[in-house]
């Protein structure tokens, strides 16, 4: 997965749902931290869509508690043929074993996404740039999910997304929460390369997500 074009991913906690995502998604994000026995599920996977593997730490909004174990699992996932990309938190890449996951991914031609999440707010533009600089330096794509409290927050995020995309950097951005919901449809117009959506609305993996069919329709109409 090179993310040259926008990739709409269906966020799944159960890979069996891939068949239901195929009509609208380009890939699936497998939230390993929310799944039972994720490596066995990946071994058994015989779907058509490539997998972006995420094993989100509890300190970054996920459910994986044991950092060493979750990064070891993610490194194993990175080497599987069905996995086209792995998501590693920027903090893991800079401060823990995340770089080892990235090395193992690179050895097998798996793309590395460095992610940053802010579940509280949208930091000032200069900080948004700082996050994207650090993420794009260490990975093939820098992803930034913030929490919008106002339309102005979304404008800041979109402006910075546009700057980076126009400069040829590969980035994915989205504003979580209700005020930022429309960013999920609009950010791709400004160069964001990944969108996330659950197949069923009740399976959302972040606040403010549209369901997959809705987001696919919005993105298609706006592009
Ligand atoms: O990092 C992201 C983005 C996300 O948080 C969102 O806001 O859509 C959803 C997560 O599943 C994914 O890992």
TrEMBL record:
Family as reported in the entry's similarity comment: Belongs to the type-I 3-dehydroquinase family.
On subunit structure and binding partners, the annotation says:
Homodimer.
Could you tell me which species this protein originates from? Halorussus aquaticus
For this protein, the record's HAMAP family field holds:
AroD
Question: Is Amino-acid biosynthesis given among the entry's keywords?
Answer: yes
- What is the reaction catalyzed? 3-dehydroquinate = 3-dehydroshikimate + H2O
Q: Which domain of life is it from?
A: Archaea
For this chain, one GO molecular function annotation is:
3-dehydroquinate dehydratase activity
- Descriptive protein name: 3-dehydroquinate dehydratase
Q: What does this protein do?
A: Involved in the third step of the chorismate pathway, which leads to the biosynthesis of aromatic amino acids. Catalyzes the cis-dehydration of 3-dehydroquinate (DHQ) and introduces the first double bond of the aromatic ring to yield 3-dehydroshikimate.
Single biological process term from Gene Ontology: aromatic amino acid family biosynthetic process
Pathway, per Swiss-Prot/TrEMBL?
Metabolic intermediate biosynthesis; chorismate biosynthesis; chorismate from D-erythrose 4-phosphate and phosphoenolpyruvate: step 3/7
């Amino acid at each position: 997965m090179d993310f040259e074009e926008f990739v709409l991913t269906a966020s799944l906690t159960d890979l069996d749902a891939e068949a239901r995502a195929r009509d609208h998604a380009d890939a699936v994000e497998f939230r390993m931290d929310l799944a039972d026995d994720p490596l066995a599920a990946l071994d058994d996977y015989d779907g058509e869509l490539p997998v972006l593997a995420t094993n989100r730490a509890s300190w970054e909004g996920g459910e994986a508690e044991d950092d060493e174990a979750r990064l070891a699992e993610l490194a194993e996932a990175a080497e599987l043929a069905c996995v086209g990309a792995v998501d590693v938190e920027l903090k893991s890449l800079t401060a823990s074993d995340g770089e080892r996951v990235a090395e193992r991914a690179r050895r097998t031609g798996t793309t590395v996404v460095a992610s940053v999440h802010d579940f509280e707010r949208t930091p000032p533009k200069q900080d948004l740039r700082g996050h994207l600089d650090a993420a794009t330096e260490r990975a093939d794509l820098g992803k930034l999910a913030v929490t919008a409290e106002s339309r102005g927050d979304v404008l800041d995020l979109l402006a910075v997304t546009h700057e980076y995309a126009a400069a040829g950097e590969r980035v994915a951005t989205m504003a979580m929460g209700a005020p930022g919901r429309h960013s999920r449809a609009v950010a791709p117009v400004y160069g964001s390369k990944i969108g996330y959506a659950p197949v069923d609305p009740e399976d959302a993996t972040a606040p403010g997500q549209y369901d997959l069919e809705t987001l696919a329709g919005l993105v298609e109409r706006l592009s």
